[in-house]
Design a protein that fits this description.
single chain; mainly beta; 2 domains; seven-stranded mixed β-sheet; six-stranded mixed β-sheet
Length: 521
């Protein structure tokens, strides 16, 4: 009787041990053995090498994308979409016997603490055996297994959402997960691995297969705060199927708009959580912000389309406020940069001393200077129809060419005793010729309203000496020594480098001379 009691106790103990063991793996075909596999798990986003067939590798050479978004007549936003890459990126699926360390000190390489990941084991013939699960940072990531050749599928949800399970009897070539949602942030890696006697180290880098975007709206240079009511991103398919053997994605036909979560909606710097979308590579990404108020301005909506988005890439879209784009002097509001034109978009140079394009009188597009077509004289085929090019800066019809009267007033107001001449010597013009920041690193030009190179130079009208093209292709050596600026009514003015008096009143412009433009409103 005593002997039977001992047997029952042993049986109970063994049953309990088996029950505990089964809590961290699917109860399919259990593989026992004397060898041990220790796991080192990281993560990765964009790859450095091209995408390969039958590979998870979503390696796109995603260039940084930038767009200027006019907000109102005072502010312009510069939006920059940057892909966040991880160093030491994995080379896709089927990397055999990896043993390199995962932790590189780059947080983009490190799997987030608390992430539950799964290890599905397939034998050399591709037959499914079992799935084990582990939690990053909370338990021992190793397990016993018999010697032999295996394929390990390691996968996880980056947001710790529930994932499908692999059914008994599955094979590597047919296993797939269907109906995955974007916010599951599915990650996957495949490692072919030979388990040898003793301790084995298996390294995997789980690759994010879905696109994710985070927003940063930075107006920290202002005294007031910014408010954003909401934000969305499109397109995103309703769901996606993943073939686990090669990471291939099959998208559903439905599409939806995905909102960004903004934990804090008011401040100088507003950050969103990551928004996840499932989409094939697209150049039609649209990100929209609603109810945006900057420094107390009336709320308005902002939308920018044509963003290029790639699957498996993590992006940060940062909005930064460009410095005020105008200054009031001479009784007129002047732009703080010369007029530019690129790919159909009119705008202003990013710094006050940067040259803009060169414009013929009475034409809407600038002179072409590309090394093949020097466009020495204007033509409607190249330079467009008759129009004020300043009026084509967004918002349309906000800016215009200055008139001869307005320019002459700028001169008189900065002449001795002029209303914009604040000295210290009121008997000298309040105009100063210098490089923009006083060094050779910036262009030479003329400040208006000052008799020195001001410390707060960004708040002054400054016209760089970009010269002109007088029916030629080389500018005639005028760059840095003279400034020619086009006015309304096919007139112009010229500034020289010999002193603050070296400035001419408005005069008729030659039809074959292309020069800079500084707009007013």
């Amino acid at each position: 009787m005593k002997k039977n009691t001992i047997k029952l106790g042993l049986a109970t103990t063994l049953a309990l041990a088996l029950f505990i063991s089964s809590c961290n793996k699917d109860t399919n075909e259990v593989i026992n053995g004397n060898s041990t596999v220790s796991l080192q798990i990281g993560q990765t986003y964009a790859k450095d090498e091209p995408v390969k067939a039958a590979s998870v590798g979503r390696s796109y050479a995603s260039a940084i994308q930038t767009a200027e978004i006019p907000f109102d007549n005072e502010y312009t936003l510069v939006a920059t979409l940057t892909p966040v890459s991880s160093s030491n990126a994995a080379s896709g699926l089927k990397a055999a016997n990896r043993a390199a360390a995962v932790n590189t000190g780059n947080e983009e390489n490190e799997l987030k603490q608390g992430t539950v990941y799964y290890v599905a084991i397939f034998d050399a013939a591709g037959n499914y055996k079992e799935t084990k699960n582990f939690t990053q940072g909370s338990n021992s990531a190793d397990f016993a297994i018999a010697k032999g050749n295996y394929t390990f599928l390691i996968y996880a949800s980056g947001t710790n959402k529930a994932l499908p399970t692999i059914t008994a009897g599955a094979t590597l070539s047919t296993v797939n997960f269907t109906g995955l949602q974007a916010d599951q942030d599915f990650m996957l890696d495949q490692v072919e691995f030979e388990v040898k006697a003793g301790q084995n180290v298996l390294t995997a880098k789980l690759e994010h297969l879905f696109t994710q975007v985070a927003l940063k709206f930075d107006t920290s240079e202002l005294t007031g705060a910014t408010t954003i009511a909401g934000a969305t991103i499109t397109p995103s398919n309703e769901n996606v199927n993943v073939t686990l053997a090669n990471g291939a994605l099959t998208y559903s036909t439905g599409s939806k708009t995905v909102p960004f979560n903004l934990p804090v909606k008011t401040g100088k710097v507003i950050l969103s959580d990551n928004a996840f979308i499932t989409t094939a590579a697209t150049s039609n990404g649209t990100i929209a912000l609603s109810g945006v108020s900057i420094n107390g301005s009336a709320p308005r909506n902002i939308s920018k389309s044509d963003w290029t988005l790639r699957p498996g890439v993590k992006y940060v879209l940062e909005y930064k406020l460009r410095s005020p784009i105008s200054v009031n002097i001479g009784g007129q509001v002047w732009a703080l940069g010369n007029l530019t034109y690129s790919n159909g978009v009119y705008g202003f140079a990013k710094t006050n001393d940067t040259y803009g394009n060169y414009w013929f009188p009475g034409f809407q597009k600038p002179k072409v200077i590309d090394g093949t077509n020097y466009n020495q004289g204007p033509s409607t085929a190249i330079n467009g129809n008759s129009a004020d090019p300043c009026s084509l800066v967004l918002p349309l019809n906000t800016w215009r060419l200055p008139t001869a009267t307005e320019f002459d007033k700028l001169i008189s107001n900065t002449n001795p005793n002029g209303i914009d001449n604040h000295g210290p010597n009121i008997y000298q013009p309040a105009r100063w010729i210098d490089s923009y920041d006083g060094t050779k690193a910036t262009n030479v030009g003329m400040f208006f309203g000052t008799q020195i190179n001001p410390v707060d130079r960004h708040g002054y009208l400054y016209l760089p000496y970009g010269g002109a093209y007088h029916n030629n292709a080389d500018g005639g050596g005028l760059f840095g020594s003279q400034g020619y600026y086009l006015l309304a009514g096919e007139k112009f003015f010229r500034m020289g480098a010999s002193g603050p008096w070296d400035i001419n009143n408005a005069a008729p412009a030659s039809s074959t001379t292309a020069m800079q433009i500084r707009c007013v409103k």
